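Entry 14. Structure prediction run on the chain below.
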Amino acid sequence: MSMTPLESALPLERYRRYLSVLAQAQLDPRWRAKVDLSGVIQQTLLEAHQAANQLRACDDGQRLAWLRRILANNLTDELRKWTTEARDARREVSLEQRLAESSQRLSAWLAGDDPSPSTTIQHEEQTLRIVAALDRLPEAQREALMLQHWHGWSLAQIAEHLQRTPAAVAGLLKRGLQQLREQMTQESRG
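Output returned:
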C-alpha cells in the first residue's frame, strides 16, 4: 500500500522556529520592517517540501545544513529587493556561513564550559530545543538576547533600539538567559 503525499512528507514544520531565529539573528533589526521574514521562511519550507525525496535520505545535521543554505539564498534574494547593489557571491557565502555559525552559537550559548554533544544528531536536536525555548521567551528578552549575542550590539545600542534604559536591558538579558537555562534544565529532566 502506497503512502499519501501527506503521510510521506517530512515533518518540516518543526524547523519553522529554527529558521525564524536564524533569520532574525542575521537580519539587522532596522531592516525587519521592510523584509518579510515569514515569507522568506515559508519559501524555504516550500523548497524543502519540494525536495522532500532528497531530504528524506539526510540525517538531521545534513537537513539543517541544507535548510540554512536555502534560507541564506532566500534572505539574500529578499534583501536584494531592497538594495541597489549588484549580486555579490561573497555576500551570499558570508550569509550562509553566518547562518551556520549562528546555529552553532545556539548550542554553545547555554552550554558554557560544558563539552559539546558527542554526536551531530544530539547537537542538532539540542539546537531545535534551544530555539523552541528562545521562542517561548517574552519578546523583549528574546530581542535583547539576539541583539547582543548575534548582532554584537552594546547595552546602549540595545537600550536605544528598545527605548529602555541600559539597566533595564541588562535585566532583560539576565532574566532571558536565566529562563533559557531553566527551560533547558527542566526539559532535560523531563
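DSSP finds ten helices and no strands in the chain.
Filed with the rest of this week's runs.
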